[in-house]
Specification:
alpha+beta, binds zinc ion, 35% helix
């Protein structure tokens, strides 16, 4: 039976030895896993940063006493609508959803207006 040539996922050199051996060396295994971890961590950090920026934008509006804004205004302030922390059906309006950004919620109406609310804080 012809043996299949396996390549190390880190350095692309052939791997010899046991059939379940994936990497050519422990150093390559460590390097590869560190790279995967770092890439994943970087991506999560990037998303965390977007969500926290969204939160500070919505908080700035809310703390100025405003409960209504527009899609255009939020977008103009750098709000990224692609990321949210929760989503549920709006019981008040069929077909619409209540999006969440941590302790804030917002509902986008068809005309682009947005209602902001804040979830009640859990008592300590
Ligand atoms: Zn290797």
């Amino acid at each position: 039976m012809e043996e299949e040539i396996r390549l190390c996922p880190n350095c692309r050199r052939p791997v010899t030895g046991r059939a379940d051996k994936r990497f050519c060396s422990d150093a390559c295994r460590t390097m590869y896993n560190n790279r995967i971890y770092r890439r994943r961590y970087t991506e999560l950090t990037r998303i965390d940063r977007i969500l926290k920026k969204n939160h500070s934008i919505i908080e700035r509006i809310y703390e100025n006493g405003k409960r209504q804004t527009t899609f255009t205004e939020l977008f103009g302030m750098g709000f990224n609508f692609n990321y949210l922390t929760s989503l549920r059906k709006n019981p008040d309006t069929a077909g619409s959803f209540i999006a969440g950004c941590y302790d804030y919620t917002y509902v986008i109406a068809d005309d682009g207006s947005i209602l902001i609310d804040r979830k009640k804080a859990i008592p300590l």
